[in-house]
Amino acid sequence: MYTTGQSTDQIDYAGGVSIERYYKWIGQIVNHYSDPDLVNKKCKQYTGGREAISNILYSVHVMDTQVNQLCHGVIVSPRFVVTIAECAKKTKRIMVYNGQSFRNQESFVKAKVHYEEWNNKLALIDLGRNISSPGSVISCLWNGRVVQNFTKVLSLRSGSLAEQYVSHVQYRPGSPLQVRYRCPANQQHVWNKTFGDLIGVKVAREQRPRIAGLLDGVPPCDMFDHFYNRQRTAEAISLQQYLPWIEDIVWRGGSG
Q1: What's the CA angle centered on 57, arms 51 and 62, to 5 degrees?
Q2: Is the domain of 15 the same as that of 105?
Q3: What is the separation of C-alpha 3 from the centre of its chain, rounded to a whole number of angstroms?
Q4: Does 61 lie in the same domain as 17?
Q5: What is an example of a Pfam family matching this protein (predicted)?
Q6: Does 15 lie in the same domain as 56?
Q7: If both were cysteines, with which of 16, 40, 177, 178 could 1 make a disulfide (CB 3.0 to 4.6 Å apart)?
Q8: DSSP state of 217
């Protein structure tokens, strides 16, 4: 950015921000609104157009070389998983539980990872091949059109399924989700401290919540918080602001 100096012949540098490095991001945002219903179209495609989506939520565990769970993730297409970027950098293996038992699982070796370049918080893991029976494990994404009841979907460390409970979630366009919940008094020792727990939102005529965000950190409950059943606030990444990036790689690129 430049300004005029003491005369019209004098130009002084005033500072500013070059938009050149953000050109691709701006283009993605602008182009996103050319097809605002892409998320809904893909949701219907994956679920067979059923109004009532299965209310069972299956777990995706992102693991390291020692088969330790690093993060949770969400399957958004037959071959793509969204998870936290820090976990994706360390992961070597992805486990997808597509049934009510650990015997119903698929193991994937990380094929390729796409990192979003805006603030390096999210990653898309390309599994390299399609999941078996993807319609039963794919989660629909939320496009931010209607705000109804939010649900914190806490995947269990000791099981392949997930439990759900409603929390107070503050939603502001373009900002992280603020999730307020009580630290459960009866879970001092089994409280899940894995990154990437899912935030869902209930949509009319759909039993299963659409995924609106991922917890970006460990739930901040200590021993006394559990004992006194205190309320705490955690921050979650809002997937809505990353939809152009997700759509560009997963669907517009023809992979999903």
Answers
A1: 135
A2: no
A3: 43
A4: no
A5: Trypsin
A6: no
A7: 16
A8: S
| DSSP string across 31-43 | HHTTSTTHHHHHH
Contact between 158 and 50 under an 8 Å Cβ cutoff? The reply is: no
Q: Indicate whether 106 belongs to any domain.
A: yes
* pLDDT tens per residue across span 119-146: 788 999 999 998 877 666 788 888 877 6
pTM over 0.70: yes
C-alpha span between 109 and 92 (Å, rounded):
6
Residue 23 lies in domain: 2-32
Block residue for tokens 């976990």:
87
Query: Residue holding tokens 């200590």?
Result: 222
| CATH code: domain of residue 101 | 2.40.10.10
Residue 255 lies in a domain: no
**Residue 55 carries which side chain, given as an amino acid letter?**
N
Q: What is the 3-state secondary structure (H, E, C) of 51-94?
A: CCCCCCCECEEEECCCCCEEEECEEEECCEEEEEHHHHHHCCEE
**Mind listing the pLDDT tens digit for each residue in 26-85?**
665 665 554 668 888 888 888 765 544 444 555 677 766 666 666 778 888 988 999 888
Percent of the chain past pLDDT 90, that is, above it, reads 5
pLDDT band at 2 (very low <50, low <70, confident <90, very high): very low
What is the C-alpha to C-alpha distance for residues 56 and 59, in angstroms, rounded to an integer?
A: 10
Residue with tokens 């698929």: 106
Q: Cα–Cα distance between 58 and 161 in angstroms, integer?
A: 5
